[in-house]
């Protein structure tokens, strides 16, 4: 499967605590033309999270049924929980020419890249392991055991940064936000995207596409 419609598909990936969710929230606030894909997960909601907003929270049994029905574009088992992205919703959005952003782990991102070669992959890195540890502790949403597990897995996740198109180091949050917004805007200016979205203009100007 390849991306042939005018919608751009973006992947944002990072180790837990690198600031991915906060950066994505800033992007969505600044750009109302991008739609966030809401993943399904078997993990419990954190304080303040709402079903259908941060995630679709489901049981393991519900998740396994969806997986067996091939409802997921990608799925992964991460830190003791399942996560999956709705295949139908993504395809409908792209078919309609809408931009979609997936906030997923690196395993799921590589699955999506195999199906959509034109996907724009963005990896968020922390400035250091110490900074990552401090952010996880300050978040105060996970137990010490969970934090230790996330830190142990961070190194294995970050070595995959080279498989993505863009890397943003989240040392200064404001600068990282501007970088993420800039990547999205630049992606929309690619010739192949403009040729689809502005085909009438290309025809008027006699530009082959």
What does this molecule look like?
With 209 residues, the protein is an alpha/beta fold. A hairpin with a 2-residue loop joins strand 5 (72-78) and strand 6. Helices cover 45% and strands 19% of the residues. It has a 5-stranded parallel beta sheet, with helices on both faces. It contains 9 helices and 9 strands. The chain has helices at 20-30, 60-68, 87-95, 106-115, 129-139, 144-158, 173-188, 191-197, 199-205, and strands at residues 9-13, 34-36, 40-41, 56-57, 72-78, 81-86, 99-103, 120-125, 166-169. The longest helix has 16 residues, at 173-188. It is globular. The protein has a domain at 9-37 and 97-205: P-loop containing nucleotide triphosphate hydrolases (Rossmann fold). The model has no long low-confidence stretch (mean pLDDT 89). Helix 1 (20-30) packs across helix 7 (173-188).
CATH architecture of the domain at 9-37 and 97-205: 3-Layer(aba) Sandwich
Q: Please describe the biggest sheet, giving its number of strands, its sense, and whether it closes into a barrel.
A: 5 strands, parallel
Tell me the structural class. Answer: alpha/beta
Overall, the morphology is globular
Number of strands: 9
Q: In CATH, what is the homologous superfamily of the domain at 9-37 and 97-205?
A: P-loop containing nucleotide triphosphate hydrolases
Helix content: 40-55%
What's the alpha carbon Rg, rounded to whole Å?
A: 18 Å
Provide a count of the helices: 9
SSE run: EHEEEHEEHEHEHHEHHH
What is the overall pLDDT average? 89
Amino- and carboxy-terminal Cα gap? 21 Å
Would you give the CATH topology of the domain at 9-37 and 97-205? Rossmann fold
Instruction: Record the strand order, biggest sheet.
Output: 2-7-1-8-9
- Taken as a percent bin, the fraction of beta residues is 15-25%
Low-confidence region ranges? none
Indicate the CATH class of the domain at 9-37 and 97-205: Alpha Beta
């Amino acid at each position: 499967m390849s991306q042939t419609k005018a919608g751009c598909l973006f992947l944002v990936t990072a180790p837990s605590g690198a600031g991915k969710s906060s950066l994505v929230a800033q992007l969505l606030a600044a750009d109302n033309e991008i739609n966030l894909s809401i993943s399904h997960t078997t993990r419990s909601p954190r304080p303040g999270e709402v079903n259908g907003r941060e995630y679709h929270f489901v049981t393991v049994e519900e998740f396994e049924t969806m997986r067996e029905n091939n409802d997921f574009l990608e799925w992964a088992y991460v830190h003791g929980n399942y996560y999956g992205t709705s295949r139908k919703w993504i395809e409908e959005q792209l078919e309609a020419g809408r931009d979609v952003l997936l906030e997923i782990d690196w395993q799921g991102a590589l699955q999506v890249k195999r199906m959509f070669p034109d996907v724009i992959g963005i990896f968020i890195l922390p400035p250091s392991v110490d900074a990552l540890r401090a952010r996880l502790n300050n978040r105060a949403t996970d137990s010490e055991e969970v934090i230790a597990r996330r830190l142990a897995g961070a190194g294995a996740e970050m070595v995959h940064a080279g498989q993505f198109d863009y890397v943003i180091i989240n040392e200064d949050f404001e600068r990282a936000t501007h970088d993420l917004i800039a990547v999205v805007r630049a992606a929309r200016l690619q010739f192949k995207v403009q040729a689809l979205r502005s085909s009438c203009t290309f025809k008027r100007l006699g530009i082959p596409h």
